[in-house]
Design brief:
about 425 residues, alpha/beta, Rossmann fold, 18 helices, elongated, binds adenosine-5'-diphosphate, binds magnesium ion
């Protein structure tokens, strides 16, 4: 299917300008499919992999529908976690940057309820909330859904996995039946279909097919490696590729903890995230990651799913995922929005069979690569150093240093020997950076 340009959609000039500022060039496949239908007023089920722009797929038409002069609550978005609430709210606020008067409020557990109550009282057009906190406000009477015209269930699979089914149903009972109900999810299960039957009216089912899922710009390769050698390989790859931001996946929480510890002793800026950690801890880690305070984030699938981590240069599968779908989710974290990304998968022993299965499932070829030797790394580092030397010569003011070199030449050394000696000193001291 050809993707639509945003200009081909009937959108207000405010939204078009915001989209331009954000830098989206064309719609993603799920946006192409869903935005026109949502604008028409249809109930929609939108299914596409994580990282494919589902937030804007509902965020854009949602904003188009808001009637600003009336500051009553007109739309709610239900999200599984606090992180997602914040992300969705941020994205909608960005899309609304030329609609100054639109008020968007995220409400989630952990934040003082009093503050949320005060904000709600002032009048809000769109609320983005976690099921638990939404229920809390409904029970207190501090949130009224009588005027809500649009409900979005975002990351529906996650919400059901987390056991929010009853909460979601309870919330939907507060919303007038005359409404538009949108459901977005990376995967669809029987349970989700049951929910849609009960709460949506003649929904349009729009799905981005699987083979479109793996972004073509992602360079995928794998290494056959001994379990014991995995950490060493990871360090070598980080150094060779000069990766500043990597997302590393392990299959279990314990393996996350262990890898984080090992990488810390090797001097990397690293942290981990998994389901056993308290929400506050997870928030702290995510914040550090987004603010570039860590270079490597080690995560389990469950902890990382649904979280939007922009600009990850590389996804590293420290373990081959147990589930094919997880592989697609994982590598979807790099090469977003058309940027170049790489995915590197570590395969040990029988994991090779799982990898073959993944290749069949995703219909992609994952190239095998040779583990770089220490000698390879040395050479690559020297290449990087030479590159740096060139840049310094072009850009920097080197007068003081030239003076020193001149003195050496005056006493009879030649510049070739001097440069070579300096390189050797750098190499022996391993000061490449
Ligand atoms: P999903 O909900 O499907 O997992 P998100 O809505 O979190 O995905 O979007 C993933 C990333 O893609 C975000 O950083 C978002 O800003 C970006 N994005 C969304 N739509 C577009 C687009 N049309 N072009 C480029 N990037 C986009
Ligand atoms: Mg999403």
């Amino acid at each position: 299917m050809d993707q639509l340009l945003f200009n081909e959609l009937t959108l207000s000039k405010e939204i078009k300008q915001a989209i331009k500022d954000i830098g989206f060039e064309e719609t993603t496949p799920i946006q192409s499919l869903t935005i026109p239908k949502v604008l028409e007023g249809r109930d929609v089920i939108g299914q596409a992999q994580t990282g494919t722009g589902k937030t804007a797929a509902f965020g854009i038409p949602l904003l188009e529908k808001i009637y600003i002069p009336d500051d009553s609550l007109q739309a709610i978005v239900i999200c599984p976690t606090r992180e997602l609430c914040i992300q969705v709210a941020q994205e909608i606020v960005k899309l609304a940057s030329y609609m100054r008067k639109v008020k968007v409020l995220p409400i989630y557990g952990g934040q003082p309820i009093g503050r949320q109550i005060r904000a709600l009282k002032k009048g809000v057009h769109i609320v983005i909330g976690t099921p638990g906190r939404l229920i809390d406000h409904l029970q207190r009477g501090t949130l009224k859904l009588d005027g809500v015209e649009t409900v979005v269930l975002d990351e529906a699979d996650e919400m059901l996995d987390m056991g929010f089914r009853d909460d979601i149903e309870a919330i939907l009972r507060f919303v007038p039946e005359q409404r538009q109900t949108l459901l977005f999810s990376a995967t669809l299960s029987q349970d989700i279909m049951k929910l849609t039957k009960k709460y949506q009216t003649n929904p349009e089912f729009l799905k981005v097919p699987h083979h479109h899922l793996t972004a073509p710009k992602i360079e995928q390769s794998y290494f056959e490696v001994n379990e014991k050698m995995k950490t060493e390989l990871l360090s070598r790859l980080m150094d060779i590729h000069d990766i500043n931001l990597a997302l590393v996946f392990c299959n279990t929480k314990r393996r996350v903890d262990r890898l984080v510890k090992n990488l810390k002793t090797r001097g990397y800026l690293v942290d981990g995230i998994h389901g056993d950690m308290r929400q506050a801890q997870r928030d702290r880690v995510m914040k550090k990651f987004r603010n570039n305070k860590i270079d490597i984030l080690v995560a389990t699938d469950v902890a990382a799913r649904g979280i939007d981590v922009p600009d990850v240069e590389a996804v590293i599968n420290y373990d081959v995922p147990n589930d094919n779908e997880y592989y697609v989710h994982r590598i979807g974290r790099t090469g977003r929005a058309g940027k170049h990304g790489i995915s590197l998968t570590f395969v040990s022993g029988k994991e090779i069979y799982k990898l073959r299965d993944i290749q069949r499932y995703t219909k992609t070829k994952i190239k095998q690569k040779k583990i770089p030797s220490l000698k390879d790394i040395e050479n690559i580092k020297i290449d990087l150093l030479i590159e740096k030397v060139k840049n310094y010569i072009q850009e920097d003011n080197l007068d003081d240093y030239i003076h020193t070199v001149e003195k050496l030449i005056e006493v009879g050394f030649n510049s070739m020997d001097i440069a070579a000696a300096l390189l050797k000193i750098i190499k022996d001291n391993k000061v490449y950076n």
